[in-house]
# Entry
Amino acid sequence: MEKLFNNINKGFSRLFRVLLFILSAFLIIYFFPKSGKFKYSFENGRPWQSENLYAPFDFAIKKTNEEIKKEKQEGALNTPVFFEIDTTLNNNSEKLIINRFTEFNNDTLLNSYGKLEIDRIKYLSIKITNEVYETGLLEENFDFNDNQLVSILSENKQINSTIYNKLIKPQDLLLFINNKIIQNKSEIFKSQIISVVFDLIKPNLKYNEILSLQALDEINNQISPNRGFIEKETLIISKGEVVEGEKLIILESLKREYQINSSSFTDIYLITSAYSLLVILSLLMIVLFIRKFEKHIYENNNKIAFVYFNITLIILLTTWVIDLDSNYIYIIPLCIIPLLFKAFFDSRIAFFIHSVTVMLLGFIVPNSYEFIFLNIIAGVVTILTSDNIYKRANLFVAVAQITFVYMLAYFSFYVIHEGNIDNLPMFNFLLFILCGLLTLFIYPLIYIYEKLFGLVSDVSLLELSDTNSSLMKELSNKAPGTFHHSLNVANLAESCANVINANALLSRVGALHHDIGKINNPSYFTENQLSEQNLHNNLSTKESVDIIKNHVKDGVKLAKSARLPERIIDFIRTHHGTNLISYFYSKELSNNNNNAIREDYCYDGPKPFSIEMALVMMCDSVEAATKSLDKPDNNKIDNFVETIIDKQIEENQFVDCELTFKNISSIKSVLKEKLKNMYHVRIEYPKNGK
# Structure
């Protein structure tokens, strides 16, 4: 029954992985572009690498955006803007001024001026006001060129034509009046004239936006997007010819026309099918790589879901940015991919997945070679410089290095293409800086992924290595001998891991927690027994074995209740593998019970399935066993280490992990050295001065 259940479980697990593969492939293909990709690659200032290119069909030479923009600017300058004039103001101005003088206190004026001077002021006020209205006073200032043509309308009929600079702006009214006063040599009456004119004068020109925009649209619609025509079979460019100037414009027009013509229903179907094959092959490469080199990831549905999710997410994000504006392509923090996978797995899978993802994106991004090169180089730098990112300083240094490499590589490409740095686009460098800042989002992202997929990063491991945690304190209080043993095992495992380039932090955390199950029955384990009386003396060997074996099950339960990650719980499950509890098995045999079943006296397993788990098993066995040595010396310790580890090898405890003979030899050397230091016998000094 158990075998059947396991088979069903394996079947569902395989089905889940297949469905994940199909869903990821579908989403990527769905958001990929549906138009064809121009098969020729060319860059400004570089020689044409392909054979002579002839026009495959008739097509128009498109004007550049700069050319069209310039033509629109010239058209706008030569197209008049329309203003409506209010003629009633001019017609009524003289009457208003006369009435104003009638309202004045004539006695007050006569005290200063005579009748002739007053008539002079009145005459000049009327004259200047008429001149203002004839010239035209704007109600507000507009952002037009000074030479912009202006058409003045009255009742929808043009009555005058001028340029914008000749109209009076609101802020220029006082200057205009002053100039007219000077022209009439009447500076002595300046304040009086200004007071009259400013009180009465009002803007008489109103901007007609509707007519102005209609006229501009008509001109813009007449601008042709084409500057020429290329007939089929016309030689466009020869092999070795430099791509620049007119050649570049023609090639870009051909590329654009090709992409437009490839959007028929049949072509879309074929193109989508081709993209589908490439996406499926790429994802299949990743799956096969993981299955061969990272089997523990392949067999874990959460981990494989994490892989598919991140690949799909980064591709969807990139396609979305390209649809918005491809100029912002370098703001996408692609180096988050290797950072994430290195944080949760290792450098090998981080580089492989990053490389395949970047190559997939190369199908849809502009300047694909440049894009792929920049991001592959940045990915390599990320992997090489991102050790111990749980340390904040290391992460900032890594991001700074990544940003610098991006900038340096982009600068090199630009110089190669352009041959100078005159028009170096500083905007792209700003994008690289923003990309670096977005990469710092890795910290909260790691936390989110840990909760979503049940993964463990070095950041969490650092927190779990704290011996002041509630679980470690409970172990220290209830089973102090076990706690001390766990600390020793943690130190040994960490040292061994450093030598063979395993995950030292993971090894330490796993070693610290591997024996937490002894909290339940601490007195049944020798390291916690304070007296010479052994509680196992009152129990049968079967009962004793059950208690010993149960510390593994109890440890798993305690770990789950404390919400420890599965990655750490696996250390509890595997730290004894399927080893024989030899003391009680030998005791049972010595009791003349030849019917004793060996498997009943073995741990239930499983065996270690990672190098770090194997390290903890070795260090645990060796550290515990050496405590039984009587007056340990160098030879005894060397032989003891060799015997214990060789026995574990003979019992095939390490067949499920990737330990090599070289690794085992290095581990033995470290254990011997460390244990000799731990159990070194001090020189006995004479007492009482003798």
